[in-house]
Amino acid sequence: MQKKRFLLNIVVSGALLLVSSIGLCSLPSLVAAETVTQNRSIIDEDNRTEVTETTTAPYASMTYIKTGKSWGSGAVIGKNTVLTAGHIADNIVDDFASENIYVAPGRSGAKYPYGKFKITAIHFPEEYAADPNSDSDLAVINIAPNAAGESIGDVVTPLALKVTNHAEIGTPITVTGYPQDKAHATMWTDTGKVVQHIGKRLFHDADTIGGQSGSPIYNNQHEIIAVHTNGNANNDYGNYGAIINDEHYQFIQAHMK
């Protein structure tokens, strides 16, 4: 039976400030003004469940990313490094030093079990900086140590990346992040499977809503194989993200701190 979809459309408007993958966000190379419509899908019944024990693995490594007026999701992948979606980083690249912009691993509503961390730099793949698109919708965020001198990767365990040049259909996956339709800043998760792999996009049937962009798509070994970026209203493949292939892995590794 063909899956039914309930679509929540979120329109993000404004100037997108882009930088090259080799430059710091304090030195932008390109500014593009545009409006982006992002579709998020609930597939059949909404099977997302709230994560209440956010200090347990792998949930402690999931990050709430405050972007000023809104938020996104991400994952700790290194001592001072967080992985998220490019269009989430677009929303903070021009004012990441603001007190209103921060990363909070394991956040659960009003609870910050590991505190807040400030951003020092943002990196985009060259392909995304030149032409924002879903194939390369990734960003690496470098994080400053907290007031106690602790790195984000010291207080939580970074998640591993798994190079995935070919994703087998049916592979079990999980998507965990911070949806906008639930109580503010609560963490939710859902399991699903890979339903298709086309080019640099991995399609899956886990339920997601706006706010979960940037969430890791990870396997049963808690290895990140893609970054969730979009829902899809135009075909039967469901939600999708940018896969961690050789190209994207090399980009991420080049900006790990």
TrEMBL record:
GO terms for molecular function: serine-type endopeptidase activity. PROSITE patterns: V8_SER. Keywords: Hydrolase, Protease, Serine protease, Signal, Virulence. Its EC number is 3.4.21.-. The active site is at residues 87, 137, 213. The keyword Signal applies. InterPro entries: Glutamyl_endopeptidase (IPR050966), Peptidase_S1_PA (IPR009003), Peptidase_S1_PA_chymotrypsin (IPR043504), Peptidase_S1B (IPR008256), Peptidase_S1B_tx (IPR008353), Trypsin_dom (IPR001254), V8_ser_AS (IPR000126). The keyword Protease applies. GO terms for biological process: proteolysis. Residues 52-244 form the Peptidase S1 domain. It is an enzyme of class 3 (hydrolase). Belongs to the peptidase S1B family. This is Serine protease. It comes from Loigolactobacillus rennini DSM 20253.
